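Protein entry
_____________
===
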Amino acid sequence: MLLPQVDERIDDLQYENYNVPALMYGYRKLIQRSHNINSATGVREFTENDYVDARVKKTYAIAQHKFRAITDADELHRLHVLNVQMKSIVNNKNVSDRHLQSALTAQQYAEYVASLTTEAHPAEIMYGNGMPNELRGYNMMLHAADFHNNKFEKMSVLKSTGRKNYSAQSVTAASNKAESLYEDALERLGEIWSSATPAELYELQTWMDRDIDIDRGFESTISIDCDGMPRVRGSRSSHAMDSGLPKLSKRIKRRECQLIAIRAAACAIAFEPEAEEDGAMSAEDADKFRERLKNLLSKNKQY
């Protein structure tokens, strides 16, 4: 009866830690679709399913496993401890590694410790190393351009409303300064893109809020203004088209890895081992697949 709750909790932790929300202007981005207008209020209404990061909840049934006949008192005690620990984590309570170690075998605990630093999700591979260094300098240049653009916009508003008597020359100078800084930032981005390898370009693109199509020249969707400049994911700018990033919290991953290790250990004691299904990926094959994926995204991979 506990296993569906455990599976659901693992799913919750993985969604919370690895999901990449699509954000626009600091809020979740709506799916573009037609909606019925509420006849009573005359207002167009949206539901949770209208957002691109809306979650599809999974349902978990009670698995039909064959129970083992447990004759070893130590195994029975360990199973009891493991069940208590599973219930604790499902109920958002902490389990210390010291208590976890006492319930797992030496090999199981070693595998748990290794899982804490093993990249097991695509989001970890794509974003786990943090923002590429090449984009940090570009980000600083973009922030400077935004600062002067905000200054220009503020001067324009104050002049148009008569609250400040700025000269047309000073307003134009502020506009030109912002445009010049945006040009410098875009030139820097072009240098980054032109010198990157295909593998580096893949990594760089995952960190941007839009496709970088500088090579298209006049057909490029990028423009030298606050709205047309590409933004690095994680940006709080209102001009970012898509700024979402996964949490990648070590605390959440630790709880996820604990629950997976406890679940596997408890099932190994309680149930008869199941025959591997045809076509199922073995643990060894899964490790090889992850390694190939890491190599694909590695910046040092030669093409």
